[in-house]
Design goal:
mainly alpha
Length: 148
């Protein structure tokens, strides 16, 4: 029988909480705070104000979605199967949005003046999205295996 105590330390919950933390802080740090990567985003003088607006929108959306999911995961009695699945769906939203944005005409994962090394052939942002989405899929699959 699963109790609140065992649910609170479950592997699916831990995976989802880790993704939530990255989601809350990742875009803010990468696009605005860390000098090297912020120079490619919010602190890029070549970007017009409207492009910076949309990046700021993405930062705010990531913080809000990550915080919403985190509140579902850490609340008293939280991390029940339906709450965990809801949190995973919420957390997947900005990462799936990042992946989908690549498909729109005229978009690029980075500006041409910034050469990026790839990791296993993927841009670091795409690799991070793949890893986090895999973690969420694992959390959802593990949750589906265990009945409340």
């Amino acid at each position: 029988m699963t109790t609140i105590a065992t649910r609170s330390i479950s592997a699916p919950r831990i995976l989802a909480v880790l993704v939530a933390i990255v989601t809350v802080f990742g875009a803010l740090l990468a696009d605005f705070v860390i000098p090297a990567s912020a120079a490619e985003h919010m602190r890029n003088d070549a970007w017009p104000p409207h492009a910076k607006f949309h990046d700021a929108q993405y930062i705010a959306m990531s913080i809000l979605l990550g915080g919403l999911a985190l509140s579902l995961l850490i609340r008293h009695g939280g991390a029940k199967r339906s709450q965990l699945w809801t949190a995973c769906a919420i957390l997947a939203t900005p990462w799936l949005g990042l992946m989908a944005a690549i498909l729109f005409p005229g978009t690029a994962i980075h500006d041409p003046e910034f050469a990026h090394a790839t990791i296993i052939g993927l841009h670091p942002q795409v690799l991070l999205a793949v890893i986090l989405l895999a973690m969420l899929a694992a959390a959802a699959a593990l949750t589906a295996r265990h009945r409340n």
